[in-house]
Design goal:
This is All-trans-retinol 13,14-reductase. Belongs to the carotenoid/retinoid oxidoreductase family. CrtISO subfamily. Keywords: FAD, Flavoprotein, NAD, NADP, Signal. The protein is an alpha+beta fold. It has three domains: 133 residues, no CATH class; 145 residues, FAD/NAD(P)-binding domain (3-Layer(bba) Sandwich); 127 residues, no CATH class. The chain contains 20 helices and 18 strands. Strands 8-7-16-17-18-15 form a six-stranded mixed β-sheet. A four-stranded parallel β-sheet has the order 10-2-1-14. The longest helix has 24 residues.
């Protein structure tokens, strides 16, 4: 009976998809296919002149720069906003991207401080060592101008650095079966649990691929799939997502250190194992299974090569453009945005408004309550909370990397003891005062300059270190409405305490940085 129901559903789904495809094919004036052209352009020499780069990345908002007859406005220039705008541009649409920061790119932007360049969010990216779907997508939105440098085969390293004890190190390898073999060598008595874990990685990966069907069919059909349970015949992804990472992994082994190694990189998606669905962790591991990469020339290359694609159809990306709210007509349909420019408010109009400002900003700040609350996403907005905050520490080292005993072309995940889930949750529950007295339980350590083959040409004789750690938002909430760089001595003092503490802890592992 279940098989009959599934067959019937798949037949209906196939008809629905065919109907949508035929409508698209025979529509009066379909937009050009954004993937119609293969971006096999010759890669141009890297632009390292900062003025030329700023002309692309830091184009300030003024009325005269707003293109006429816009097809769409995108709020926010993170990679989601930029890639959406680039695809629309490749389909012939004129798009305006508005960014409140002074530089486009979101987590893909970089900044220069005291002669050092730092990236704020791109530490490594998977699936760039071969022509994957992800790489093909990035080739499309950058016209093939974005290059990637592979990290070392051992792209991550897990360290347990308990005070007054020898540091325990566990390398994480790319390549099919390599990491699994390494773990079996270190934990021979846990071979069965290790094999099961890696089988689950593949099982959930295939389930994720088939789960994409919900993006291709009407919402009413998705509702039927969910309510009847037929979704579980199409994909196992949602079954696994009902289980936390901790529930699955803790069931594979009693060895706490091995459990922690399986979940070591939860910081990449910002949610501890007991709070995250199991697929989040498995998809991250499979994402890097064939290696990690870093953008040649630094993270800002992503935005630098995406913006010209947006401009090619008459659009542009403007910064220092704080969108106050989305303009709506009486029926609730969006028709523009209002931008704050000094003491003035500028209205900009377009038939399509796309928000890349994030779920909470969009529904709590940019839309009026009566419209936001009518959305099917409103229950999610009101019932969920943002994940844990994080703090980044940027360090410039005035010597070449070759003279330092550090990690090259890889990252380190440093924990102060076992049971990283409990370690994290206990820390997040602390008060600010308790946090200032405690050891930092988790540190992500990276030396970005060692990953970029162009670094020495741009910044010879210098090395950069980036540290990322936990920082509950409530610890700093009282300063949330203060201006950047104008939050006062107490705020700056708190930053220095955590920054110096992080550097001190890392110095025990890499003493040469002192």
């Amino acid at each position: 009976m279940a098989l009959l129901s599934l067959s019937l559903f798949m037949a209906i789904a196939a008809i629905a998809i065919l109907y949508k495809a035929l409508r698209f094919m025979f529509a009066k004036s379909p937009s050009p296919n954004p993937f119609d052209v293969n971006p096999t352009y010759e890669v141009k020499p890297k632009v390292i002149d900062q003025k030329q780069r700023d002309a692309v990345l830091k184009k300030g908002f003024i009325k005269d720069k707003i293109p006429e007859n816009l097809d769409a406005i995108v709020i926010g220039s993170g990679i989601g906003g930029l890639s959406t705008a680039a695809l629309l541009a490749k389909a012939g649409k004129r798009v305006l991207v508005l960014e409140q920061h002074d530089q486009a790119g979101g987590c893909c932007h970089t900044f220069i401080e005291k002669g050092y360049e730092f990236d704020v969010g791109i530490h490594y990216v998977g699936e760039m060592t071969y022509q994957s779907v992800s790489k093909t997508y990035l080739d499309q939105i950058t016209n093939g101008q974005l290059e990637w440098a592979p990290l070392s085969e051992q792209y991550d390293e897990v360290l347990f650095a308990e005070k007054d004890k020898e540091i325990r190190k566990y390398p994480v390898y790319s390549g099919k079966g390599v990491w699994e073999a390494s773990l079996k060598k270190r934990f021979p008595e846990e071979a069965a649990g290790i094999e099961k874990f890696f089988k689950l990685l593949e099982e959930v990966k295939s389930g994720n691929t088939s789960s994409m069907i919900v993006k291709l069919i009407p919402l009413w059909m998705v509702w039927i799939l969910e309510k009847t349970g037929l979704i579980n015949f199409v994909t196992n992804f949602y079954k696994w997502n009902a289980l936390t990472c901790k529930e699955v992994v803790w069931g594979l082994t009693e060895n706490q250190e091995l459990r922690d190694i399986f979940c070591y990189c939860f910081g990449d998606f910002g949610t501890p194992p007991s709070k995250a669905g199991f697929p989040m962790q498995t998809l991250l591991h499979t994402h890097f299974m064939k290696g990690g990469s870093y953008p040649v020339g630094g993270a800002s290359e992503i935005a630098f090569h995406t913006i010209p694609v947006i401009e090619s159809s008459g659009g542009t990306v403007l910064v220092r453009a704080e969108v106050q709210h989305i303009l709506l007509d009486q029926s609730g349909k969006a028709y523009g945005v209002q931008v704050k420019k000094g003491s003035e408010h500028v209205s900009v109009y377009a038939p399509i408004i796309i928000s890349d400002a994030g779920l909470y900003n969009t529904y709590d700040r940019l839309l009026p309550l009566n419209v936001a609350s009518a959305s099917r996403l409103w229950p999610i907005v009101k019932s969920s909370e943002p994940g844990p905050g994080a703090m980044s520490i940027f360090v410039g080292l005035n010597c070449p990397a070759e003279e330092l005993d550090i990690i090259h072309k890889k990252n380190a995940w440093v924990y102060t003891q076992n049971d990283i889930d409990k370690l994290t949750l206990d820390y997040l529950e602390m008060s600010l005062e308790e946090g200032m007295d405690a050891e930092i339980p988790l540190l992500f350590v990276s030396f970005p300059s060692t990953k970029d083959p162009e670094w020495d040409r741009r910044f010879p004789g210098k090395t950069t270190m980036a540290l990322v750690t936990l920082m509950p938002y409530r610890w700093l909430k009282e300063w949330e409405n203060e201006r950047v760089m104008k939050r006062g001595d107490e705020y700056d003092g708190i930053k220095k305490i955590f920054g110096h503490k992080a550097i001190e802890q890392v110095s025990r592992i890499f003493p040469s940085i002192k």
